[in-house]
Amino acid sequence: MIRSIRWRLVLAGALAIALALALSGMGLAVLFERHVERVAVADLQDRALALAAMVQPGGAAGASLRAPPDDPLYDQPFSGHYWQLMLGEELRRSRSLWDYTLPGDQAAPRPGQSAVLTLPGPRGEPLLAVEQSLMVGRGPDAVPLRIVVASDRDELVLARRGFLGDLLPYLGLLGAALLLASWVQITVGLRPLGQVGGRVAALVSGARPRIGQDLPAEVVPLATQIDKLLDARDRELDRARHRAANLAHGFKTPLQALLGDAARLRGNGEAEIARSIETVVNQMRRHVDRELARARIQSGRNAPGGSEPGWIAAKLVGVLRRTPLGAGIDWRLSAPSGLCARIDPDDLTEALGALLENAMRHAREAVQVAGRPEGNRVVISVQDDGPGVPEADLERLTRRGLSLDPSGEGQGIGLAVVADIVDAAQGELRLANAHPGFLAELHLDAAPPEAASSFPKYS
Predict the structure, then answer these.
(1) In Å, how far are 238, 321, 409 from 414, measured between CA atoms?
(2) pLDDT tens sequence across 171-205
(3) How far apart are CA 101 and CA 257, in angstroms?
(4) 319 lies in the same domain as 418
């Protein structure tokens, strides 16, 4: 999971969303607390101005205080709501303060102004307080009035906790929605990479010759470089194939000359030496023929389409029926229409030709050629009614064919070339005794029927 780009992006997105929601929650909590404090301060200011109505101008002192208005909040001791008035030297307190006096050592605000304070309460709790300063009367006889109204700050803390308690479920839902949206965004964003992966898989299977340019702009450079790499690989394979073919052709003339020398030696009475030379030359010719055949094989990854096994088998059987040996064979063909295998037509023609010739040489009366679909593969079978192969040789033959042993022993160059062709097409060659007869099966990947329409028909 650590190597997955998707999960890395999801994890990074989840961390970013969690951090953003946490900061948002903290910011909203601070804003809510400030808003509640502003509302509380405004309420305290209103209450302070209402308490100013206790002042009664006149008298020897210039002003006096009336009885406070009845208010249950201020009558209950330590209720968390307090007020305190000081008119000149006269001090009045709410009953809720009991015998406690709010500190007044701080400088009073200017007359007509108010100040927001934090004061210790009767039990040491922090209080949010508003101090209002007024002047009662005019001139030198004016009496200063200080009104302090306070409330317990714990109420603000409780309000913030309640707000956060209501906010957290919505933040959780918002986080889940954002995470889902992030997953959808990442999935949509990474889809082109999946498309490239699918096209690379199609390259490996031979379903596409190249990745192509019809992709999002961000992945086109990657696709272009891969296509250039494939072009360079194909050019190198072509050069290697041509070099192998040229080398094999270069051997044919000297080998033919050696056969001529062997014939002259045989004419001069040197039969043993001539036979030895012919044995070596024939073995070398088999190697040369096989390399020539392998040089002609097209890799299944490069095959842009497919072949029709039934059509190709019918054409090959038509040719073999005109031979003296094939004319006496009962050829039986069965392949459904539309059956198409993913292999180059030339390669399938060469492979089926080798199998049909082998079956024709060993058959007593009949050879059966059949094609059938099997899952996502096409199975092409060639079966004769001959003596078959000894079990010990069959096991060795199957192993050698599938391992592409270049020695060409056992069944000779034909089956070795067939094995090479099938392996290049990412298929499988299976050999078995049919009791009676010998059975060879080609298991090849299936291709859509229209894939064969682009290939020329054989005559």
Answers:
(1) 23, 20, 10
(2) 999 999 999 999 898 888 888 877 787 778 777 76
(3) 130
(4) yes
